[in-house]
Amino acid sequence: MQSSSALLSRRPRTAAVRRHAVEALVRREYGADRSAAIVGKAGYVKSRVMRAAATNTKAWRASRLAITWLGRVVIMWGSYRQVARELYGLNDRDLRDLRVTPGDITDIAWSEARLRAAESERPLEIGAATLLALVVAAALVIMLALIASHP
To answer: Considering 18, 37, 55, which residue would you say is the last residue of a domain?
Structure first.
């Protein structure tokens, strides 16, 4: 697969070829139903924001992957805590019925957490919400430090 900058940097012979290259990028990033509204007749992306998105798809994908990864980590940590809490709440007889020793609980909890994180349908939204919460918390800490330093 060619990168977006390689597709857009080549000088196509006709506007139709350029339009096809830009539409392929926009279709890949925004879906087929929106590509006609974004790309003009001459093959140029209509708005500056869309043009930047079409030329910087690698940056957009990298940030999206990072936020998705953060969401999966949050899901995995919450799932681990839930499963571990349930297993540690069982008595020895129940654990023996499940054929689980107390030393196996953390391994079982992490395995289940990985499965739940992989099956999750909303890691991007959860990652974005977590990132937003981290940014707000950091801003609050900085504001409190500034307030405390001034008499």
So the answer is: 55
Number of separate domains in the chain: 2
Q: How far apart are CA 93 and CA 143, in angstroms?
A: 53
Q: Are residues 137 and 64 in the same domain?
A: yes
Read off the pLDDT band of 110 (50, 70, 90): very high
61 neighbors 30 (Cβ within 8 angstroms): no
Residues 122 and 106 in one domain: yes
**Residue closest to 125 by CA, chosen among 75, 79, 78, 76:** 75
pLDDT score for 12: 45
**pLDDT tens digits along 32-57:** 555 445 455 444 445 555 555 555 66
d(CA 67, CA 10): 32
How much is the mean pLDDT over the chain? 76
Give residue 100's identity as a one-letter amino acid code.
Answer: V
